[in-house]
Design brief:
Residues 55-77, 93-118 are annotated as: Disordered. By secondary structure, this protein is an alpha+beta fold. Helix content is 25%, strand content 22%.
């Protein structure tokens, strides 16, 4: 039901178990709601002569171009239900932490680990580390022999041209080759979608949309939260402002893609299969224009919003023809036509939905929205005819300084300056030479604040305080790495650890889920590390390490319940679970490439701890662990077994979790903290195995994450990127490319929504969760008398909340975990009292 532009939705129940999720596209669950129509007067068309003068015409809709309605399509629709394909509605906890305890181990025998005995202490990488190229390949060979290959992935390649390098499954353009191929692709600030005969224009071209802030739809206010922030905000989809099409396109039109890379892909429209006539749209993140390359077609520039006026504006440079367009919503656009033969394209206004050129035309047409009047027009004019065809990232590290570059591949009139759009976190970290290219022109993005036009062929960005001293011990920017704890803390840790280290590691990790299994292994790795390095209990640690290595070997040998396979269709390592069960949601959609950074990050972290404590373990296990890192975060296109950086999006500064599932709001991320966990685990694995490039890359990713999360996910009161009526939620909940919803896939309890951005608590937590943010969030939700007091929260979420409290109040956190009547049920299956005590103590709690 739509009421005064505020959308109401069915409440999300707070239970941890829901009905089996279904695809939002086929289930009928949820609804698309039309936003309120804007008032529009009679459509008046102006056609332009090549001299630039205009002639006013009466409204006309010739046969074959009949508009389907007299109302301009200015409103679009929104999807208010969660798209749950591949998402299990269960809490992110493995089995009970205290299940399977085999008995208390107590010994005064001084056992020595293979690392050299109880005196072994971690040493952080030297701050003077210099790595000229952090994107060196980890490896280029095939996955380990124990991981078989399959060629029958449940999701076939749809319309993808043959390419020798793997196709990224989690990038912004995946909707182009999934499902109906009709959902949107967000390049920011623009989005595009294949029209498929929809809208007023009934076009089969590629529609272009840009949504301003005043077009958003907002969810209901959450009265239980101070300030009553809205639950969600959504940008309407389906507003077909400008459409790049051709007169030849119709119901036989086909959409294909080629040259799919980390930052770019080409979308191709052809009148029919194997037609030599083609429209190619290079899609690049941050592109300043939407560009269409026509080959032997009759250009049809369409609009379902309706053209109000179209004015030929002469030629801003040789061979470039310019048109000013005003749509019926009052928005201004520019169109530039660059014919291959240099001749005038003679675009003619045929109706209020159609601007048409000559048949058999070849050349380039670019469109851009102009929010800045004559100034914006001047900027666009200077860059008209040139466009980004692709991008790549380069990086280096020297000491605590990390530098990375976006190098844009130019096409078209390459001698001219390139205009691209930067997100807020880019602007904050631009080096001086790139800062000089910043302009005053901005366009709203859907979920990342204002995008700023930048004139530069290459962007250089700098992070100046990499966490090079962060290791396995508790860490914060203030304390540093806390490798020495008080005697009282060591005593409490030993008491807790002597019990927890003897839980049945095999039983807790031998599960049908890579996610839950990895969490258990990572938990026990931190218990063993804490006992050895922080509590000075080498005997307890030695026994725990033996059990941990045995539990881990099940996965390294690929003999778990659902083994891994190498999928040669898409190029990745996936669980065999969905192959065997037919359930795309098995293990949160792992087989379909959902959440790989969440799942595999825990294994990489556990492996780093084992290798640190026993270096002899590294050699026989290195290839298997590296395989997981390559699957999630392959740093090099020289590695042809995995796509470059499957999950971490170097443009957005964080990862996307959604894999091969069509989505009306595109890619999403639910747990920013588990994103951090992968980068941290990778950093530590690189440090332990001596891969300096991997360690440096992990440090840089952590710093970029810290910046992007505080801009977009973790919202302090002074956040300017998210809507003012939303930032009171403090965390985004689930951030999609097109909307943000303060909820989770497994329930709407406040501790769930806030806590999923806390777990797991690692040394990196204090880097990415600033003290000011943690303080504001605690006061809003979890302090006594707040919206959801931590003292009243049940189950493992209580432990998560009090561990997170250590970032700002380590003493209270430590007191909670060291109390004599501590209840183990306050620990989730991926957490331990041992580590929480050490974490709080290390940050000053004891």
């Amino acid at each position: 039901m739509v009421q005064s532009a505020v959308l109401q939705r069915a409440p999300v129940h707070s239970q941890s178990i829901f009905r089996k999720p279904k695809s939002w596209l086929s289930s009928g669950e949820g609804s698309s709601y039309a936003l309120p129509q804007q008032a529009a007067g009679a459509a008046i068309l102006s056609t332009a002569l090549s001299s630039g003068t205009t002639t006013t015409l009466a409204t006309q809709t010739p046969a074959g171009n009949q508009a389907s309605t007299t109302t301009p399509g200015t409103t679009g629709s929104v999807i208010t239900s969660l798209e749950t394909s591949g998402e299990l509605s269960v809490q992110p906890f493995p089995i009970s932490t205290h299940a399977g305890t085999t008995g208390t181990f107590s010994s005064t025998e001084s056992l020595s680990l293979q690392t050299g005995g109880s005196g072994h202490k971690e040493v952080a990488s030297k701050a003077a580390m210099t790595v000229p190229d952090i994107f060196q390949p980890i490896a280029t060979g095939s996955p380990p022999s124990q991981v078989p290959s399959r060629e029958d992935h449940p999701v076939p390649r749809l319309g993808i041209a043959s390419q020798t390098y793997p196709i990224s499954t989690n990038k912004f353009y995946a909707n182009l080759f999934l499902g109906t191929q009709g959902q949107g692709t967000w390049t920011h600030p623009y989005s595009v979608a294949w029209c498929k005969g929809t809208g007023n224009a009934q076009s089969w071209g590629m529609c272009i949309s840009h949504v301003d802030a005043d077009q958003r739809a907002y969810g209901p206010q959450q009265m239980a939260i101070p300030g009553s922030p809205v639950q969600y905000f959504i940008n309407p989809i389906g507003i077909q402002s400008i459409i790049l099409s051709a007169a030849e396109f119709g119901s036989s039109t086909v959409l294909t893609t080629d040259t799919l890379r980390a930052f770019s892909a080409n979308a191709n429209l052809q009148p029919e299969i194997d037609s030599e006539s083609k429209l190619t749209i290079p899609l690049v993140q941050g592109m300043g224009f939407v560009t269409g390359i026509y080959n032997n077609l009759c250009p049809a520039i369409q609009s379902s919003v309706f053209f109000r006026t179209v004015v030929s504006a002469g030629s801003p440079k040789a061979g470039v023809y310019k048109y000013r367009i005003t749509l019926e919503d009052g928005k201004s656009w520019l169109l530039y036509a660059i014919p291959s033969n240099g001749s005038d394209p003679f675009l003619k206004l045929v109706s209020n939905t159609l601007l048409q050129g000559s048949s058999g035309w070849s050349g380039t047409i670019q469109v851009a929205k102009n929010p800045s009047g004559s100034h914006g027009e001047t900027l666009y004019d200077s860059s008209a005819g040139v466009y980004a065809a692709a991008g790549q990232v380069k990086g280096s590290v020297q000491g605590k300084w990390g530098t990375y570059q976006f190098q844009w591949t130019k096409a078209g009139l390459t001698a001219d300056p390139l205009l691209m759009f930067a997100l807020p976190h880019h602007i904050q970290s631009f080096a001086n030479d790139t800062l000089s290219g910043i302009t005053s022109m901005q366009l709203q993005t859907t979920t990342k604040g204002m995008a700023t036009a930048v004139i530069a062929n290459c962007w250089t960005l700098v992070e100046t305080d990499l966490p090079t001293d962060m290791c396995f011990a508790p860490w914060s920017p203030i304390v540093g790495s806390a490798t020495t704890l008080s005697a009282a803390a060591r005593q409490d840790i030993t008491k807790a650890g002597s019990s927890e280290v003897n839980q049945d590691m095999n039983a807790q990790s031998n599960l049908d889920s890579m996610y839950f299994s990895g969490k258990a292994l990572s938990k026990f790795a931190m218990i063993v590390y804490t006992l050895h390095d922080l509590a000075n209990q080498p005997a307890l640690a030695a026994q725990g390490l033996t059990s941990l290595k045995a539990a881990f070997s099940r996965f390294a040998n690929n003999s778990q319940i659902y083994p891994l396979v190498y999928d040669s269709v898409w190029g990745g390592v996936v669980s065999v679970g969905s192959y065997l069960t037919g359930d795309s949601g098995q293990d949160f959609g792992n087989t379909y490439y959902n959440d790989h950074h969440f799942h595999y990050g825990y294994f990489v972290h556990a492996a780093a701890v084992i290798g640190y404590l026993d270096p002899s373990w590294i050699a026989p296990n290195r290839d298997w662990v590296n395989m997981l890192v390559r699957d999630v975060a392959n740093p090099s296109t020289q590695d042809n077994y995995f796509p470059f950086s499957r999950n971490f999006d170097w443009y957005h500064g964080h990862s996307f979790a959604k894999g091969l599932f069509e989505s009306g709001d595109s890619k999403d991320e639910e747990s920013s903290s588990e994103d951090v966990m992968f980068a941290y685990g990778m950093k530590m694995w690189g440090q332990v195995v001596g891969d300096a490039a991997m360690e440096a890359r992990g440090n840089l990713m952590l710093s970029i994450l810290a910046r992007s999360l505080r801009n977009y996910f973790l919202m302090q009161s002074d956040n300017v990127n998210q809507p003012a009526n939303f930032i009171g939620n403090k965390v985004t909940g689930i951030l999609f490319e097109n909307k943000i919803d303060h909820t989770t896939y497994f329930g709407a309890n406040l501790e769930y929504i806030q806590g999923i951005h806390m777990i797991p608590l690692t040394p990196a937590s204090a880097l990415t969760r600033p003290q000011q943010f943690v303080s504001e969030e605690w006061s809003t939700y979890f302090a006594n008398g707040a919206a959801d007091p931590a003292a009243n929260v049940v189950g493992g979420w209580r432990g998560i909340l009090f561990a997170n409290l250590a970032i700002i109040d380590a003493r209270t956190s430590y007191s909670f975990f060291s109390q004599s009547n501590f209840d183990p049920s306050w620990l989730d299956g991926g957490a331990s009292q041992t580590w929480y005590l050490a974490y709080a103590a290390g940050l000053g709690g004891a």
